[in-house]
Protein backbone atom coordinates (compact mmCIF):
# COMPACT_ATOMS: atom_id res chain seq x y z
CA UNK A 1 0.00 0.00 0.00
CA UNK A 2 1.23 3.48 -0.87
CA UNK A 3 0.67 6.21 1.72
CA UNK A 4 0.55 9.96 1.11
CA UNK A 5 0.39 12.69 3.75
CA UNK A 6 -0.87 16.24 3.19
CA UNK A 7 1.01 18.64 5.44
CA UNK A 8 1.86 22.35 5.64
CA UNK A 9 2.08 24.71 8.60
CA UNK A 10 -0.39 27.21 7.20
CA UNK A 11 -4.17 27.22 7.28
CA UNK A 12 -6.47 28.00 4.38
CA UNK A 13 -4.41 26.32 1.66
CA UNK A 14 -7.15 23.90 0.59
CA UNK A 15 -5.33 20.94 2.12
CA UNK A 16 -8.49 19.08 3.12
CA UNK A 17 -10.24 19.67 -0.21
CA UNK A 18 -7.23 18.49 -2.19
CA UNK A 19 -6.62 15.46 0.02
CA UNK A 20 -10.21 14.34 -0.54
CA UNK A 21 -9.92 15.02 -4.27
CA UNK A 22 -6.77 12.90 -4.48
CA UNK A 23 -8.34 10.09 -2.43
CA UNK A 24 -11.35 10.12 -4.73
CA UNK A 25 -9.12 9.96 -7.80
CA UNK A 26 -6.90 7.18 -6.45
CA UNK A 27 -9.96 5.14 -5.48
CA UNK A 28 -10.74 4.77 -9.18
CA UNK A 29 -7.51 2.78 -9.52
CA UNK A 30 -7.83 0.69 -6.36
CA UNK A 31 -9.31 0.55 -2.85
CA UNK A 32 -8.33 3.71 -0.97
CA UNK A 33 -8.57 4.74 2.68
CA UNK A 34 -8.55 8.37 3.79
CA UNK A 35 -7.33 8.96 7.36
CA UNK A 36 -8.66 12.14 8.99
CA UNK A 37 -5.75 13.11 11.26
CA UNK A 38 -6.96 16.68 11.79
CA UNK A 39 -8.57 17.16 15.24
CA UNK A 40 -11.12 19.50 13.62
CA UNK A 41 -12.52 16.53 11.70
CA UNK A 42 -13.51 18.49 8.58
CA UNK A 43 -12.89 15.56 6.26
CA UNK A 44 -15.05 13.30 8.40
CA UNK A 45 -17.76 15.94 8.60
CA UNK A 46 -18.02 15.82 4.83
CA UNK A 47 -17.65 12.11 4.14
CA UNK A 48 -18.80 10.34 7.32
CA UNK A 49 -20.34 12.71 9.89
CA UNK A 50 -21.67 10.02 12.28
CA UNK A 51 -18.57 8.87 14.16
CA UNK A 52 -18.51 6.13 16.79
CA UNK A 53 -15.06 4.56 16.62
CA UNK A 54 -12.55 7.22 15.59
CA UNK A 55 -8.86 7.52 14.79
CA UNK A 56 -8.05 8.60 18.35
CA UNK A 57 -9.45 5.34 19.73
CA UNK A 58 -6.98 3.37 17.62
CA UNK A 59 -4.04 5.57 18.58
CA UNK A 60 -4.86 5.41 22.30
CA UNK A 61 -4.96 1.61 22.04
CA UNK A 62 -1.59 1.53 20.30
CA UNK A 63 -0.09 3.89 22.90
CA UNK A 64 -1.43 1.69 25.68
CA UNK A 65 -0.05 -1.49 24.18
CA UNK A 66 -3.42 -2.87 23.11
CA UNK A 67 -4.32 -4.16 19.67
CA UNK A 68 -6.52 -1.54 17.97
CA UNK A 69 -9.83 -2.59 16.43
CA UNK A 70 -9.04 -1.11 13.03
CA UNK A 71 -11.96 -2.77 11.28
CA UNK A 72 -14.40 -1.03 13.63
CA UNK A 73 -13.00 2.36 12.65
CA UNK A 74 -12.92 1.88 8.86
CA UNK A 75 -16.12 3.22 7.33
CA UNK A 76 -17.25 3.04 3.73
CA UNK A 77 -18.16 6.29 2.02
CA UNK A 78 -20.81 6.74 -0.63
CA UNK A 79 -18.08 6.72 -3.31
CA UNK A 80 -17.01 3.33 -4.62
CA UNK A 81 -13.69 1.97 -3.33
CA UNK A 82 -13.23 4.88 -0.90
CA UNK A 83 -13.22 4.34 2.88
CA UNK A 84 -12.37 6.64 5.77
CA UNK A 85 -10.96 6.36 9.28
CA UNK A 86 -12.82 9.33 10.77
CA UNK A 87 -12.23 11.83 13.54
CA UNK A 88 -15.13 13.13 15.60
CA UNK A 89 -14.02 16.74 15.36
CA UNK A 90 -14.39 19.03 18.36
CA UNK A 91 -16.28 16.32 20.28
CA UNK A 92 -13.56 13.75 19.64
CA UNK A 93 -10.41 12.71 21.46
CA UNK A 94 -7.76 13.25 18.81
CA UNK A 95 -6.63 16.59 20.22
CA UNK A 96 -6.30 14.99 23.66
CA UNK A 97 -4.14 12.23 22.18
CA UNK A 98 -2.01 14.79 20.33
CA UNK A 99 -1.43 16.77 23.54
CA UNK A 100 -0.76 13.85 25.88
CA UNK A 101 0.64 10.72 24.23
CA UNK A 102 1.64 11.50 20.65
CA UNK A 103 5.09 12.84 21.52
CA UNK A 104 6.11 9.53 23.04
CA UNK A 105 4.79 7.46 20.14
CA UNK A 106 6.25 8.90 16.92
CA UNK A 107 5.68 5.64 15.03
CA UNK A 108 2.09 5.04 16.20
CA UNK A 109 0.57 6.12 12.90
CA UNK A 110 2.96 3.85 11.00
CA UNK A 111 1.96 0.96 13.27
CA UNK A 112 -1.70 1.69 12.59
CA UNK A 113 -1.19 1.81 8.84
CA UNK A 114 0.78 -1.43 8.93
CA UNK A 115 -2.40 -3.06 10.23
CA UNK A 116 -4.56 -1.90 7.33
CA UNK A 117 -5.49 -4.69 4.94
CA UNK A 118 -7.19 -4.62 1.55
CA UNK A 119 -6.17 -1.14 0.41
CA UNK A 120 -3.90 -0.05 -2.41
CA UNK A 121 -3.66 3.59 -1.32
CA UNK A 122 -3.84 5.58 1.90
CA UNK A 123 -4.19 9.38 2.10
CA UNK A 124 -3.65 11.21 5.41
CA UNK A 125 -5.09 14.68 6.01
CA UNK A 126 -3.42 16.57 8.86
CA UNK A 127 -3.92 19.86 10.66
CA UNK A 128 -1.90 23.02 9.79
CA UNK A 129 0.63 22.32 12.55
CA UNK A 130 3.92 20.50 13.03
CA UNK A 131 3.32 18.85 16.37
CA UNK A 132 3.81 15.24 17.48
CA UNK A 133 0.64 14.00 15.75
CA UNK A 134 1.56 15.58 12.42
CA UNK A 135 5.12 14.27 12.71
CA UNK A 136 3.79 10.77 13.31
CA UNK A 137 1.62 11.05 10.19
CA UNK A 138 4.59 12.20 8.11
CA UNK A 139 6.79 9.36 9.34
CA UNK A 140 4.07 6.90 8.31
CA UNK A 141 3.91 8.21 4.74
CA UNK A 142 5.82 7.22 1.65
CA UNK A 143 5.46 10.74 0.31
CA UNK A 144 4.46 14.19 1.57
CA UNK A 145 2.32 16.59 -0.47
CA UNK A 146 2.25 20.32 0.27
CA UNK A 147 -0.58 22.60 -0.85
CA UNK A 148 0.33 26.29 -1.16
CA UNK A 149 -1.71 29.38 -1.99
CA UNK A 150 -0.57 32.23 -4.20
CA UNK A 151 0.31 34.68 -1.44
CA UNK A 152 3.58 36.38 -0.65
CA UNK A 153 4.32 34.02 2.24
CA UNK A 154 4.10 30.85 0.16
CA UNK A 155 7.78 30.43 -0.67
CA UNK A 156 8.86 31.41 2.87
CA UNK A 157 6.46 28.89 4.38
CA UNK A 158 7.78 26.20 2.08
CA UNK A 159 11.37 26.87 3.17
CA UNK A 160 10.39 26.56 6.83
CA UNK A 161 8.50 23.36 6.16
CA UNK A 162 11.45 21.85 4.28
CA UNK A 163 13.72 22.60 7.24
CA UNK A 164 11.23 21.09 9.69
CA UNK A 165 10.79 17.97 7.60
CA UNK A 166 14.52 17.38 7.19
CA UNK A 167 15.03 17.86 10.94
CA UNK A 168 12.29 15.33 11.68
CA UNK A 169 13.80 12.74 9.34
CA UNK A 170 17.26 13.30 10.74
CA UNK A 171 16.10 13.07 14.37
CA UNK A 172 14.18 9.87 13.70
CA UNK A 173 16.80 8.46 11.31
CA UNK A 174 14.02 8.06 8.76
CA UNK A 175 14.34 7.89 4.97
CA UNK A 176 10.71 8.76 4.38
CA UNK A 177 8.60 10.57 3.47
CA UNK A 178 9.84 11.50 0.03
CA UNK A 179 9.10 15.11 -0.84
CA UNK A 180 9.06 16.38 -4.41
CA UNK A 181 5.56 17.67 -5.16
CA UNK A 182 3.92 21.04 -4.52
CA UNK A 183 0.22 21.69 -5.08
CA UNK A 184 -0.26 25.36 -6.04
CA UNK A 185 -3.91 25.91 -5.13
CA UNK A 186 -6.31 28.63 -6.34
CA UNK A 187 -3.86 29.42 -9.14
CA UNK A 188 -4.86 32.05 -11.70
CA UNK A 189 -2.32 32.88 -14.41
CA UNK A 190 -4.05 36.22 -14.99
CA UNK A 191 -2.89 37.38 -11.55
CA UNK A 192 0.61 38.84 -11.76
CA UNK A 193 1.53 37.87 -8.20
CA UNK A 194 0.61 34.25 -8.88
CA UNK A 195 3.00 34.08 -11.82
CA UNK A 196 5.71 35.71 -9.73
CA UNK A 197 5.25 33.31 -6.84
CA UNK A 198 5.13 30.34 -9.20
CA UNK A 199 8.44 31.43 -10.72
CA UNK A 200 9.90 31.88 -7.24
CA UNK A 201 8.85 28.36 -6.33
CA UNK A 202 10.41 26.98 -9.48
CA UNK A 203 13.71 28.72 -8.84
CA UNK A 204 13.81 28.81 -5.03
CA UNK A 205 12.80 26.38 -2.29
CA UNK A 206 10.71 24.37 -4.69
CA UNK A 207 13.28 24.33 -7.47
CA UNK A 208 13.55 20.55 -7.50
CA UNK A 209 9.83 20.01 -7.11
CA UNK A 210 7.10 18.97 -9.52
CA UNK A 211 4.44 21.68 -9.31
CA UNK A 212 0.73 21.05 -9.91
CA UNK A 213 -1.53 24.08 -10.45
CA UNK A 214 -5.15 23.85 -9.28
CA UNK A 215 -7.60 26.66 -10.08
CA UNK A 216 -10.24 28.02 -7.75
CA UNK A 217 -13.23 25.77 -8.38
CA UNK A 218 -16.76 25.82 -6.87
CA UNK A 219 -16.88 22.03 -7.28
CA UNK A 220 -15.26 21.67 -3.85
CA UNK A 221 -18.09 23.58 -2.20
CA UNK A 222 -20.63 21.46 -4.08
CA UNK A 223 -18.90 18.32 -2.86
CA UNK A 224 -19.14 19.60 0.72
CA UNK A 225 -22.87 20.23 0.31
CA UNK A 226 -23.41 16.75 -1.18
CA UNK A 227 -21.08 15.07 1.36
CA UNK A 228 -19.01 13.36 -1.28
CA UNK A 229 -15.84 13.78 -3.34
CA UNK A 230 -15.61 15.87 -6.50
CA UNK A 231 -15.35 12.78 -8.70
CA UNK A 232 -18.94 11.96 -7.75
CA UNK A 233 -20.23 15.21 -9.29
CA UNK A 234 -20.42 16.93 -12.65
CA UNK A 235 -19.15 20.44 -13.25
CA UNK A 236 -15.51 20.42 -12.17
CA UNK A 237 -13.30 22.71 -14.23
CA UNK A 238 -11.25 20.90 -16.90
CA UNK A 239 -8.04 22.20 -15.30
CA UNK A 240 -9.08 20.72 -11.93
CA UNK A 241 -9.81 17.32 -13.43
CA UNK A 242 -6.63 17.33 -15.49
CA UNK A 243 -4.32 18.21 -12.58
CA UNK A 244 -5.84 15.80 -10.06
CA UNK A 245 -5.66 13.09 -12.69
CA UNK A 246 -2.02 13.93 -13.46
CA UNK A 247 -1.15 13.91 -9.75
CA UNK A 248 -2.84 10.54 -9.19
CA UNK A 249 -1.06 9.00 -12.17
CA UNK A 250 2.30 10.28 -10.93
CA UNK A 251 1.65 8.78 -7.49
CA UNK A 252 0.49 5.36 -8.63
Order of strands, main sheet, comes to: 3-4-2-5-1-6-7-8
**What is the CATH topology descriptor?**
Rossmann fold
For the biggest sheet, the summary is: 8 strands, mixed
CATH top level class name: Alpha Beta
Which structural class matches the secondary elements? alpha/beta
Number of strands: 8
If you compute it from the alpha carbons, what radius of gyration comes out, rounded to the nearest whole angstrom?
A: 17 Å
**Would you identify the regions where 5 or more consecutive residues have pLDDT less than 50?**
none
Give an overview of the whole structure.
By secondary structure, the chain is of the alpha/beta class. It has a single domain, classed as 3-Layer(aba) Sandwich (Rossmann fold), CATH 3.40.50. Helix content is 42%, strand content 17%. It has helices spanning 15-26, 42-47, 55-63, 70-73, 94-100, 108-114, 132-139, 154-171, 192-203, 219-226, 238-251; strands at 2-6, 32-37, 75-76, 82-85, 121-126, 143-149, 178-185, 210-213. The protein has an eight-stranded mixed beta sheet with strand order 3-4-2-5-1-6-7-8, with helices on both faces. Strand 6 (143-149), helix 8 (154-171) and strand 7 (178-185) form a beta-alpha-beta unit. Helix 1 (15-26) packs across helix 11, helix 3 (55-63) packs parallel to helix 5 (94-100) and helix 3 (55-63) crosses helix 6. The chain is globular, with a radius of gyration of 17 Å. The N and C termini lie close together (10 Å). The mean pLDDT is 91.
Amino acid sequence: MKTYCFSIQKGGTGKTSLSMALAGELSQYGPTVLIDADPQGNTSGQLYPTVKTELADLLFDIAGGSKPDIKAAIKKTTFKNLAIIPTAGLDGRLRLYAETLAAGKPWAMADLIAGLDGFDYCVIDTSPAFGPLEKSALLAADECLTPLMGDTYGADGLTIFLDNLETLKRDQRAKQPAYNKILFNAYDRRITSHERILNELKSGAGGNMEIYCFPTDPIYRKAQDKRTVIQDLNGAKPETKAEIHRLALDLR
